[in-house]
Specification:
Number of helices: 6
Radius of gyration: 16 Å
Number of domains: 1
Strand content: under 5%
Shape: globular
Distance between the termini: 26 Å
Largest sheet: none
Number of strands: 0
Helix content: 40-55%
Amino acid sequence: MTYRKKLIEVALPLKAINEASVREKSIRHGHPSTLHLWWARRPLATCRAVLFASLVDDPSEHPEEFPTEQDQERERDRLFKLIEQLVIWENSNNQEVLRRAKAEIFKSTGGNPPPVLAKSTILPPLTATNMRYISSTNYCF
């Protein structure tokens, strides 16, 4: 198996990720961080962006599809727009955004994604009654 450079190794839409992370830290209703405050909160927006960009190939790794630097940059911008949608807290359960993200991951992994993604289910709205169920299940993206 040959190594393919991932999107995270080339570039990320840092401004959008940072803005979503700052906003997410101030959400006071319906966010997991409101269950218990801890000192070093890590925004989920950053986690989603980093995980996605770590799994998706950079367009420069597919010269047959994106032969010129302009084509590669255009494709990178398209992936950045997807990341920008993925980091918005309100899109955490947006089926269309999640479907598009999974499709990109499946494309980059040759239809053989990491096991946790292959079995994933969309996280239901967070409530106190389903916290026990959520903690006993493998949820991601």
